[in-house]
Amino acid sequence: MVDVKISTEIIKLDAFLKWCGAVMNGGEAKLVVQDGRVKVNGEIETQRGKKLRNGDTVEYNQMSYRVVQE
Q: Which residue intervals of the chain are DSSP H helices?
């Protein structure tokens, strides 16, 4: 599990995927989320605008990331 620090209270899923380096750009983030290839807190998430908060976990491409608020 990789802790990814954010400086805001919330971050949208697509922005988080870019921020942590899981995807190269917003277009790729949109596609992987819409294709059902991303899990948030263990559940498949297809809304790229899903709001993530401190402690949420994201799984993509055999990697796990945890949102950590600074």
A: 13-19, 26-34
